Amino acid sequence: MSQPPSLRTASRRRLLTVWTPEDRAFWVREGHAIANVNLWISIPALFLAFAVWQMWSVVAVNLPNLGFQYSENQLFWLAALPALSGATLRIFYSFMVPVFGGRRWTALTTASLLLPTIGVGLAIQDPATPYSTMLVLALLCGLGGGNFSSSMANISFFFPKERKGSALGLNAGLGNLGVSSVQFLAPIVITIGMLGPWAGGPQQARLSGMQGGPIEVWAQNAAFIWVPFILIVSMLAWVAMHDIADARASFSEQAVIFRRKHNWIMCFLYLGTFGSFIGFSAGFPLLIKLLYPEVRPLQYAWLGPLVGALARPFGGWLSDRIGGARVTAWTFALMALAVVGAMMALPGAGSPGSFGGFLLAFLLLFFLSGIGNGSTFAMIPPIFNTLAQRRLSGERAEAEGARESAAVLGFSGAMGAYGGFFIPKSFGTSIELTGSPYAALVFFVVFYVVSILVTWWYYARRGAEVPC
């Protein structure tokens, strides 16, 4: 069935047949304004995606308080599974913008977040909900994780080279605030029956760190609160964002990145930066709950993702000025030291440990991972533009560099997101086998040291293969 004329006309208005952001006159005359419209709609869409993706970092902590009889390892599985499905979806989402267009894909994928939010809101009201159902809902929350790759690939097309780092840093950094927001807002909204009787009645819960008997909570609000915002942003993306005609490409045209060595190197580095951010975000609340039972984890856990998200635009900005490779190498070095600080604060051997020291070490880790998120993504466009210019010349080099950069931004985002699965699972496995997360933290130190060497060898040293 063909579209009505009004819809076809609206669709044509949203299609940019001429888009040359590297042309200074074009950029000043109209490009800057159009790019900003797309950026400032993309940011709330990505914010909601991250909020839904990390919903289980909050929900899993509260399940025992609501009467759900799950083991510690089962809870870590629920916190980790959204990252596993989100990372896998990112592999496919990485290539969707050039196939379908950024406007259509942003609107549809944002609307898809209604599935997990409504599902979780219904399931959490009944402690008899099977664990298998909870696993499926945790996997569906990965729809939010997938959106990141397509969002970053889409925004990369709109900005000239010298502004890509800052634009991508803003999109990802402010989008990442969805993680801290869901962890900050959930403990507040579940205490208020603000959504009316249609959302369901209250439950009885016993909260850790609180004296007295059970209190009434509306746990479903942690999910349902996002539904109206998802509807609004989906419609806004559909009517106000743009598709770029020149950015269209088939999957086979983009799949050339799988033959590029530097695609896989940047995937590894992004696993160390964004993988740390999203993995620590997913596992931090449960880790606090298990290591320091007297502490209410959701009073503090949201601070880490907030710090990391706010640091990301600064990482992109700093990289635009002094070089992404240099920033990335120093970031990994400081992250290794921060993990050592967290290890020194752990309880054990008759010592209660230092929660203050543990919290400060993790806040530093979140801050540094945010800087590294921005710096690694700022490295990708110059790397692939340089490689394209070595193979080709003129407009062909520019077009191929932009296309491959967008695909690598998306695909490395997919690979990095697997950190959101492996980090909480490594904490759960380490605690189950040894009674402490110490072994997992040792592994992280080794990983960061290897990442320093890789960054220095390929990108930061004098005579590096692709200095950036």
Describe this structure in a few short sentences.
The protein is mostly helical.
Structure description:
Residues 1-10 have low confidence and may be disordered. The chain has one domain: Growth Hormone, Chain: A (Up-down Bundle), CATH 1.20.1250. The chain has helices at residues 5-13, 24-53, 55-62, 72-93, 96-100, 102-111, 114-123, 131-140, 142-156, 161-189, 221-224, 227-240, 251-254, 261-291, 303-322, 324-344, 355-391, 394-417, 419-434, 438-460, and strands at residues 15-16, 203-205, 215-217, 243-244. It has a two-stranded parallel ribbon. The protein has 468 residues and is mainly alpha-helical. Helix content is 73%, strand content 2%. The protein contains 20 helices and 4 strands.
Per-chain topology:
Layout: H1 5-13, E1 15-16, H2 24-53, H3 55-62, H4 72-93, H5 96-100, H6 102-111, H7 114-123, H8 131-140, H9 142-156, H10 161-189, E2 203-205, E3 215-217, H11 221-224, H12 227-240, E4 243-244, H13 251-254, H14 261-291, H15 303-322, H16 324-344, H17 355-391, H18 394-417, H19 419-434, H20 438-460
Parallel strand pairs: 1-4
Antiparallel strand pairs: 2-3
Helix pairs in contact: 2-9, 2-10, 2-12, 3-4, 3-14, 4-8, 4-9, 4-14, 4-18, 4-19, 6-9, 6-12, 7-8, 9-10, 9-18, 10-15, 10-17, 14-17, 14-18, 14-19, 14-20, 15-16, 15-17, 16-17, 16-20, 17-18, 19-20
